[in-house]
Amino acid sequence: MKRLRTLLVDDNQAFLALSKHLLTPMDGVEVIGFGYDGFDAVRLAEELHPDLIIMDLVMPGMGGLQATRLIKAQHQPPQIVIASYYDDAEHREHAAAAGADGFVGKNAYEQQIALFLSNRGPVVG
């Protein structure tokens, strides 16, 4: 089974550590790098060619929506899941409009990311 090469991007280092802790034991998931803002996400997407990026919505400098738009314009872009505490219909719609393949609420992150990974399909709407 091919491992899902995953890039984690969030300005909160504690959330990055938690996310890595939750993802590492999952079958088929490999965390290949970390970024701390949208600029890192765009650069690392080009350098590392991940299969999946799990990215925060709101970060200093460049947020997750702008980074999603730029990454999705790349050749063979990865799937992108936006993770945010702002888990409401409006933010989910903005994520979908930016091209995100999924949206997970940070308050239920463990369950929602596991659901996304098991389906490997959109959970935006």
Automatic annotation (TrEMBL):
UniProt keyword annotation of Signal present: no
PTM sites of type 4-aspartylphosphate: 56
Sequence ranges assigned to domain Response regulatory in this UniProt record: 5-121
InterPro entries, sorted: CheY-like_superfamily, NreC/VraR/RcsB-like_REC, Sig_transdc_resp-reg_receiver, ST_Response_Regulator
Alphabetical UniProt keywords: Phosphoprotein
PROSITE patterns (alphabetical): RESPONSE_REGULATORY
A GO biological process held by the record: phosphorelay signal transduction system
SUPFAM superfamilies: CheY-like
Protein name per Swiss-Prot or TrEMBL: Response regulatory domain-containing protein
